[in-house]
Write a sequence for this structure.
């Protein structure tokens, strides 16, 4: 059987409050996103003014249990309309094998006016796996960004592009690497200067080069304990504490000058390579026209 199988599909010309209430009474999938009031109110006004054309209600049979999969917002909007209001609705029911397959199925029902964001997709994926309980969303996202950049660039299957579910699946495909990166930023209070995308990208590259040395190096950059001036980890740590990236993940983490992603990444790799070569350094620089360094 495919990951999900369509069991029934029909168009109901007059879908009203009774049907909406029955749908909303069904249990939710684990990890389902919360209802957004602003979207419910928008749909309510569209329905009242006759501008809403056709809705899409989706239910799923997961392990013998019928659950909601799509249509909560439009159902809530319909309930807020005057009695007797009805709309046309496409009603579909699917059979799904496992919670993990439901995560893939969940991404299928996206809509420009109610986009299932990256956060929603990651939440439903994590709920389906039961392997990442207690992991901060931000850490998982940064791990995925670091590994995804590497994987999508060298794997012709993706040709530089990955679906959101494929990106989420990297957590399962590279559990040891993700666990190490998570360890590198514990405890959180001591790791704020590390919670940036280019730094996680560098972390992943150092893990590929030498996982044991990476654990030592990033522990030094995190804590700063017993470091001396001119040690690569010391110079990098001091630099990261007073610098923020120009945009994206980690922009707000520190005060100070802004630098591009590539520059901060290059600092990290230059410091790592200096440590590997047992060299002391006085500063970290990278020119935008220079090629990005590779981790030794």
């Amino acid at each position: 059987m495919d990951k999900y199988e369509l069991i029934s599909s029909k168009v109901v010309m007059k879908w009203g409050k009774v049907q909406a209430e029955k749908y909303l009474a069904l249990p939710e999938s684990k990890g389902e996103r919360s209802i957004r009031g602003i979207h419910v109110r928008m749909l309510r006004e569209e329905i009242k003014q006759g501008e809403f054309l056709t809705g899409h209600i989706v239910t799923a049979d997961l392990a013998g249990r019928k659950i909601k999969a799509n249509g909560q917002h439009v159902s809530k909007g319909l309930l807020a309309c005057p009695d007797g209001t009805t709309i046309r609705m496409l009603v579909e029911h699917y059979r799904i094998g496992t919670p993990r397959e439901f995560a893939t199925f969940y991404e299928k029902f996206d809509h420009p006016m109610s986009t299932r964001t990256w956060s929603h997709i990651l939440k439903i994926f994590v709920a389906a796996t039961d392997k990442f309980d207690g992991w901060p969303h931000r850490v998982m996202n940064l791990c995925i960004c670091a590994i995804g950049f590497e994987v999508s660039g060298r794997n012709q299957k993706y040709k530089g592009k990955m679906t959101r579910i494929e990106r989420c699946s990297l957590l399962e495909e590279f559990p040891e690497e993700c666990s190490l990166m998570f360890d590198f930023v514990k405890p959180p209070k001591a790791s704020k200067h590390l919670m940036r995308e280019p730094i996680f990208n560098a972390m992943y590259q150092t893990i590929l080069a030498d996982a044991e040395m990476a654990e030592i190096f990033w522990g030094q950059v995190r804590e700063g304990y017993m470091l001396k001036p001119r040690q690569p980890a010391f110079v990098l740590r001091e630099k990261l504490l007073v610098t923020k990236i120009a945009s994206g993940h980690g922009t707000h983490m520190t005060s100070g000058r802004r630098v591009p992603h590539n520059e901060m990444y290059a600092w990290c790799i230059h410091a790592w390579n200096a440590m590997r070569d047992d060299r002391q350094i006085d500063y970290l620089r990278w020119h935008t026209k220079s090629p990005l360094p590779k981790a030794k």
User: Anything to note?
Assistant: Strands lie at 4-15, 54-62, 65-70, 87-96, 243-245, 257-259.
